[in-house]
Amino acid sequence: MNAFEITGGIKLKGEITPQGAKNEALQILSAVLLTEQKITISNIPDIKDVNKLIELLGDLGVAVERINKDTYTFEAKNIDLNFFESDTFKAKGGGLRGSIMIVGPLLARFGKAAIPKPGGDKIGRRRLDTHFIGFEKLGAKFVYDSKKAFFNVDATDLKGAYILLDEASVTGTANIVMAAVLAKGTTTIYNAACEPYLQQLCKMLNRMGAKISGIGSNLLTIEGVKVLGGTEHRMLPDMIEIGSFIGMAAMTESEITIKNVSYDELGVIPEVFKKLGIKLERRGDDIYVPSQKHYEIDTFIDGSILTIADSPWPGFTPDLLSIVLVVATQAKGNVLIHQKMFESRLFFVDKLIDMGAQIILCDPHRATVNGIDKKYKLRGISMTSPDIRAGVSLLIAALSAEGKSTIYNIEQIERGYQDIDTRLRALGAQIKRVNADAPSH
């Protein structure tokens, strides 16, 4: 098993460029299945989840060509529809959460698909409800084959429909949009997600010949067309990486410039970090974070403790709450972190407490952080990364801590962060990859 060994307490300096957006990639790559014409996509992050999806597209029969480090062409002319019922697809599709995103385009273009049974007793498992209810409203029919543990989907007659989503799911909205662009008639999606990544998908589909209006709002109208063509698309930089680097600069008292951030697409992210007292300034399309010894958390106007909570876009993204929490541990003041969307995202705080942070885990969704104003440094420990975002939060904590830290299960971090150790070393971080077995406890 690979691990990171980090010697903390070192000030970093320099420029860092964020990778392409992981969450955008899973949608955009799936959309290549909507046409047999060539699509060129650039700024693709070289990370495991994305590479697995590209491999899956190749298995389906998409002609994939890598032009350079971050640019590929895709031509989905000869799709093997029998591949959906193969054991290979079941293994690869089941091992990649993002594989659900290929279902919408396949239903739209070919009128059928097969999906390995998701975990849980019924197909309407919470995180996939929105996808399947949307497909059914467009006219798709699901038939379960208990011998193969596959759902066969018949969508030979998709028709536009009015769809009111029960939650503003980003992947659910994207999947339904991709299914609707080739359906007959008009589809209206209300309570649609409106994240920049979804806007990117809709703009790309319109360049391919789709007719989508309302982009950027929570009410999308899609007039079905008969066929889509090829296009070129460049992905946004990853806003989660950008937020992670802002937090890292503050925690380590480092002077860092984050390059090419597509600032106008970051929403409230810079403002949330400013509420923690972090100085940052926009320089063109870069973010400059100066070295600062202290940063103080704002209070509400009446003097009460600040609460930072996640909510659907244009609210604060849940993927950055772990970063905000770890950064607050070294601030002056207190903050309540309220993670509404996921109930296990805060369970890594025990590691931060072991490092010396003062945090009260109120319940699975809320934690109160008592910032220690860098009166003493966090101390390095050995720890295991439970998920992508917690893993990077622990990495940031380790970079600021006194002494050596070891982070195990770094495969979780590398699912979402490309060459993170190499890029941090370029800023002066002492981080190296080692082979080590995780502790048994």
The total beta strand count reads 23
- CATH fold topology of the largest domain: UDP-n-acetylglucosamine1-carboxyvinyl-transferase, Chain
CATH class of the largest domain: Alpha Beta
- Characterize the overall form: globular
Gist of the model:
With 441 residues, this protein is of the alpha+beta class.
Describe this protein's structure.
This protein has 14 helices and 23 strands. Residues 119-126 have low confidence and may be disordered. It is globular, with a radius of gyration of 22 Å. Strand 7 (141-145) and strand 8 (150-154) form a beta hairpin. Helix 5 (129-137) runs parallel beside helix 6 (170-180). It folds into two domains: 2-19 and 237-435, Enolpyruvate transferase domain (UDP-n-acetylglucosamine1-carboxyvinyl-transferase, Chain); 22-234, UDP-n-acetylglucosamine1-carboxyvinyl-transferase, Chain (Alpha-beta prism). By secondary structure, it is of the alpha+beta class. The longest helix is centred in the N-terminal third of the chain and has 13 residues, at 48-60. The strands form six sheets. Strands 21-22-1-23 form a four-stranded mixed sheet. Strands 2-14-16-15 form a four-stranded mixed sheet, with helices on one face. The protein has a four-stranded mixed sheet with strand order 4-5-3-13, covered by helices on one side.
